[in-house]
Give the backbone structure.
Amino acid sequence: MRIAKTTLLTLCLLAAGCGDFFQGPDSGGGTGEASGDLRFIADCSSGPLDAPIANCQPEPVASSGDPYADCVTRINQLRWECQCLPPLQRWNAAEGCADQHSEYDSTRSAHAGFSDDICSPRGWAQNECPGWNSTEHVINGCLQAMWDEGPGEPFSEHGHYINMTNPSYSMVACGFYETANGDFWSVQNFQ
């Protein structure tokens, strides 16, 4: 049964509008006691939480081999398991622009392509992981670090988390670029 739930979670995270499918921890037959499946961290039966669960670090879902899909899956996993937020849709049409932002920024600075409006569709907000050593580290390390910023002020210290949880956004496009020395730059454009 655990494998089936993990598979369903992965499929659900890749689709839009599945937030009502999972209702928190596997309650062990309605007893209210968690069965030990730590993948289901939040009890989402009452809807989105006002704030994320403290120190929420769900085990990453196994790689699908597609870093674009895995990036969206990880963002949605953090949104759902740590705060009961519905999933963002994968914004396939904007992935090419996100790739261009990643490449452009690798020779300039973070968010340069977004600020210089080098391509479209670019979205309304952007997070960036500059110079990581693999796509896996971007997905499992950088995205977790952004989530860990949590809510608060000033925006400069919490903006990545704020972008990941903004209720105005319904889609995210991830982009990647590998430099000649093997560093990975990645952006996540939200709309």
Notes: The first strand starts at residue 89 and ends at 90.
